[in-house]
Specification:
By secondary structure, the chain is α/β, with parallel strands linked by helices. The protein is built from 13 helices and 19 strands. The longest helix is centred in the last third of the chain and has 25 residues, at 353-377. The protein is globular. The structure holds S-adenosylmethionine (SAM) and iron/sulfur cluster (SF4). The site of iron/sulfur cluster has 10 residues, from α6.
Length: 439
């Protein structure tokens, strides 16, 4: 039996795409191996959101050169966001002639055909589709985790934030029909999954392209009724399309968790406009107020970028003030990185690296102190924790996630895995909460 190894770079969306790639390979009779050095097929599912992500792929491909020399029959493939950029597939072929297969984000379903062709002809295959076709449903999937499943509800992004490469490599927004999503989720419930994470670059614009009226709130209503699944999460929300109706629906639905990941990017109206985000600081703050009004215990997290072109000290200060005002439970922080082909890469006034470095350090320091305060506020509270397994802090402890998506550790037996345990929080740490199970 032939073996495969998939190395995934980037976000959850790529992780989930790799589950589909694995599904197709296993349907062809390949089996998974952890050891890329011994695999018959190595596939790199790539990310191009920042240059560092691309550099990791280049150096990994360089390392694979030696393995290919030792084992010429081995197939090396590259797919995902990186080759979807204009000219990148040809560049990869030129720099890394030992790569046998290059394809993009729009023709993933062709993987089995490509492999058969390479095995038959022993010639490299480079095939990038410039645009997405209809969504291919029903591809086999091998899910990595046993409790939490990712489910794509829409592909692509129409927002064209001026710094971001995603719309260029993932194509226009395309929503999957609600009925196929319901069926997929019901099957996951039957297979023993407890939690589903709905994936899309901007889940709030779900349904806009469907031929009948359907929106994200409507989809959540349908999914909340699916048996077997105990929790529903989603990512990522866009503040421009988030509204009070959706907050009220989330507050009412029992399975949809009270965790709002709402990327703000900047606290400065001037920068938000340059980023083409389509909302103001005031709109964002009003959303946060509404979330806290309807769901006082809501956990609110965000993505923040520093060093966008033209960001001056006042703009950065506005971001710091926003962090203090909202009091995010946590945030993913990013240093702006120019992506060729995006409008921001052409903007004058690129911020010096030294300034960016100082700003990210200041931001992380502030966020850590706010996160610690927020976690401390959970001491004494009772949290429903979906138990995921044994904690690596101590063999007598198990860990899981609260509805707010915080990691909680507590004394317990591994047989609790998959159960929802009522846990009283006794101690806060920056990255997790400690507690004990209520008798
Ligand atoms: N669709 C989501 C949204 O609108 O928030 C985000 C998807 S993107 C893959 C995740 C994060 O990467 C963004 O929120 C942004 O902060 C960061 N990001 C995107 N482009 C970037 C760039 N050129 N440099 C640095 N960070 C970037
Ligand atoms: Fe990128 Fe903006 Fe689309 Fe998010 S919404 S993927 S940041 S273009």
């Amino acid at each position: 039996m032939k073996s495969y190894n998939i190395k995934t770079f980037g976000c959850q969306m790529n992780e989930h795409d790799s589950e589909v790639l694995a599904g197709m390979l296993e349907a062809m009779g390949y089996r998974s191996t952890e050891d890329a050095g011994k695999a018959d097929l190595v596939l790199l599912n790539t990310c191009c959101i920042r240059e560092t992500a691309e550099n990791k792929v280049f150096s990994y491909l360089g390392r694979l050169r030696r393995q290919k020399v030792a084992n010429p029959a081995m197939i090396i493939g590259v797919c995902g966001c990186m080759p979807q950029q204009e000219g990148m597939a040809a560049r990869m072929h030129q720099l890394f002639p030992h790569v046998d297969l290059v394809f993009g984000t729009h023709n993933v379903q062709q993987l089995p055909v490509f492999i058969d062709r390479i095995l038959a002809e022993r010639k490299p295959v480079l095939e990038i589709w410039p645009e997405a076709a209809e969504i291919t449903e029903g591809l086999p999937t091998v899910r990595k985790e046993g409790l939490r499943a990712w489910v794509t509800i829409m592909h692509g992004c129409d927002n064209y934030c001026t710094y971001c490469i995603v719309p260029y490599v993932r194509g226009r927004e395309r929503s999957r029909g609600p009925d196929v999503i319901v069926r997929e989720m019901a099957a996951l419930g039957r297979d023993g999954f407890k939690e589903v994470v709905l994936l899309g670059q901007n889940v709030n614009s779900y349904g806009k392209d469907l031929k009948y009226p359907m929106d994200f709130a409507g989809l959540l209503e349908k999914l909340d009724g699916v048996n077997g699944i105990a929790r529903i999460r989603y990512m990522t929300s866009h503040p421009r399309d988030f509204n009070e109706k959706l907050i009220r629906v989330i507050a009412r639905l029992g399975k949809v968790c009270e965790h709002f990941h709402l990327p703000v990017q900047s606290g400065s109206n001037r920068i938000l406009k340059e980023m083409h985000r389509g909302y103001t600081r005031e709109h964002y703050l009003s959303l946060v107020e509404k979330i806290k009004f309807y769901i006082p215990t809501a956990v609110i997290t965000t993505d923040i970028m520093v060093g966008f072109p033209g960001e001056d000290d006042d703009d950065f200060q506005a971001t710091m003030d926003l962090v203090k005002q909202v009091r995010f439970d946590s945030s993913y922080t990013f240093v702006y990185n120019a992506r060729p082909g995006t409008p921001a890469a052409e903007m004058a006034e690129q911020v010096p690296e030294k300034t960016k470095k100082q700003r990210i350090q200041d931001l992380i320091k502030l966020q850590n102190s706010v996160s610690m305060e927020k976690n401390k506020e959970e001491e004494g509270s009772r949290q429903e924790v979906l138990v995921e397994g044994k904690s690596n802090i101590d063999p007598g402890l198990v860990y899981g996630k609260s509805r707010g998506n915080k990691t909680v550790v507590f004394p317990g037996n591994i047989i609790l895995t998959g159960a929802i345990a009522p846990v009283t929080i006794t101690r806060a740490h920056l990255a997790y909460l400690e507690g004990f199970i209520e008798k």
